[in-house]
């Protein structure tokens, strides 16, 4: 299906697709995902080194979500006055500064500050990513370009947690974050060489970006944002604390934990690919049943968590289902808010990051005050609510 909007029309008129620029953005997305979620597999050593509880360390993910929310809501209005090339490169420099601060953090306060800077990049880059890609390739190539970018997401999701766990045990969590710094520098050079000038669009093409929150006046958009928040919030209530679950419930060693998390991540490729094949005709059933299936697997983990190999299979299923959810919601965005892609992108990123922040916070509270069982059950409950809200999908259509 060919998507049409002022932005895709602009891309079509531009001639040849800028695949190198799409590749640079894909690499940046992968690095962002790696930096955002690497603490999931490093919660225990980070907490121990900085004198915090594991629940407090989990809030490092929550704070990046808070700043990502604020940035994603503000960035469309800011970006429409500047060349997108300069904005994206500036955001990548901010990620670099964040990683250096994380690696050098002397205490928990500095760690939180560094994660806040990372949240600025996450919110800004993701909010602009879809609309930017729409200007880099013609409309008929947009699904392929977005699929490439989400492949970067899947690669990082597959590698961040297990590599963090493995290298954290060998060289320490600080050195693990240092390994990302040269990769970000390479990405900055790639962006500088490949991203074309993307000046502000004419007023008639960008007027829809003036109000991100204004989109919530559309009933189907407001309901979709609620459904997305419940889906992502439920997933991250559990996912953020999989390491404590595997340590205390499964009693996995560090090498075993690394392999379990790697299996979860690699299964994400299957989930991404499978969702891409089904989205053309089955978008709304996927939005409805994916969170319910993910919630059921989350509960299943509590039943089989004492058995290593069965846990490995359940985690692989969890990873596949979880990876399919963002693909489904990004596809809804191109249909549900196609007339305002930058504002819609900002709003979707805000909703997702707010749900990640809330999910990580809720999971940490349940872990600190109850037990890991409560954390996983809380996540499953939110996922079931997402299924109920989406229903047959009619309420999510304009």
For the biggest sheet, the summary is: none
Which stretches of 5+ consecutive residues score pLDDT under 50?
Answer: 1-14, 204-210
Strand percentage: under 5%
State the fourth-level CATH superfamily.
Answer: MFS general substrate transporter like domains
Radius of gyration (CA) equals 20 Å
In DSSP terms, counting alpha (H) and pi (I) runs of 4 or more, how many helices?
A: 16
Highest-level CATH class: Mainly Alpha
By helix and strand content, what is the structural category? Answer: mainly alpha
CATH topology: Growth Hormone, Chain: A
On the 0 to 100 scale, the average pLDDT is 81
The shape is globular
Architecture overview:
With 398 residues, this protein is an all-alpha fold. It has a single domain (6-396), classed as Growth Hormone, Chain: A (Up-down Bundle). It has 16 helices and no strands. It has helices spanning 6-13, 19-37, 43-50, 54-79, 84-104, 108-136, 142-171, 173-178, 180-194, 203-206, 219-239, 242-250, 254-304, 308-336, 341-369, 372-390. 58% of the residues are buried. The model is unreliable at 1-14 and 204-210 (pLDDT under 50).
